[in-house]
Amino acid sequence: MTPGRLPSLGDLRARYVDGKRPLPAPLEAALRADARTGAAAILTAIARRRRDNRSEGQRLRTMLRYENTLWETGVARIAGVDEAGMSPLAGPVAAAAVIFPRGTRIPEVDDSKRLDVAQRNRLAPIIRQQAIAWAVAFAEVEEIDRINIYWAGIAAMRRAVQALAPAAEHLLIDARRLREVDLPQLSIIGGDGKSLSIAAASILAKTARDSRMAELDAEYPGYGFARHKGYPVKAHFRALGRLGACPVHRRSFAAVREALGLPPLPPWPSQTI
């Protein structure tokens, strides 16, 4: 194939760079023989994508090390579990549990905090589609204020696990243990960045909670819940100072109590749920 018989460089870029299709070997050889700057730019872009793909492949292999160890022992249904929304001043805490088939690899799945909104919203339906089972559960503000945010997060994770169908055989959890769930469990510190299943759960929990906060924004306008999702940012503090607390603010949180003129709470007693 000679350079003169190549499709236009614009068509090649659209198909093999922007469209990310594999570049056939004859076309690659023809581009290497083409002295035009545009041909070299296409080859450079494709080489960069190949390097990125190799790096992503290695990252995914690392992210599956816990799952692969269990799959190899015959455990089929491994649930990754994570929560979202522990530190906001308002709204529920969400948790998700995800079971993938053996060998699942979903590029770009990572700790939800490392992804932007568009990435999370794009990946969430892919995760739900590829999962054997998934579930999202919440602990509402009233429960957070009654038992405290730590135990409310535990409760939400337990509910997500219990909602899985088929049920999990083993749990991988981000830095927690679910005492009342009678299943083998592995608590992994920083697990949402080390396990694909936990990372997927973090994405589902985060996107579900964000959606709920957008609904609460319409119900309680003026606080900016759709933008900051209830987190303790300057705009939220300004709204609290201007409007006071609304029914979905966590009255067990010091900043909310201060806005309401309430005294600090005594230390929470230790408890199990």
Description:
There is one protein chain. This protein has a 5-stranded mixed sheet with strand order 3-2-1-4-5. The chain is of the alpha/beta class and 273 residues long. The chain has 11 helices and 5 strands, in the order H-H-H-H-E-E-H-E-H-H-E-E-H-H-H-H. The N and C termini lie far apart (71 Å). The relative contact order is 0.14. Helix 1 packs parallel to helix 3, helix 5 (117-130) packs across helix 8 and helix 6 (141-147) packs across helix 7 (149-162).
Poorly predicted runs of 5 or more residues: none
Number of helices: 11
Q: In this structure, how is the largest beta sheet organized?
A: 5 strands, mixed
- Specify Rg, calculated over alpha carbons: 24 Å
**What's the count of strands?**
5
Largest sheet, spatial ordering of strands: 3-2-1-4-5
How would you classify the helix and strand content by structural class? Answer: alpha/beta
H/E topology pattern: HHHHEEHEHHEEHHHH
Distance between the termini: 71 Å
Estimate percent helicity.
40-55%
Q: β content, as a range?
A: 5-15%
Mean pLDDT: 91
Q: How would you sum up the global shape? A: flat
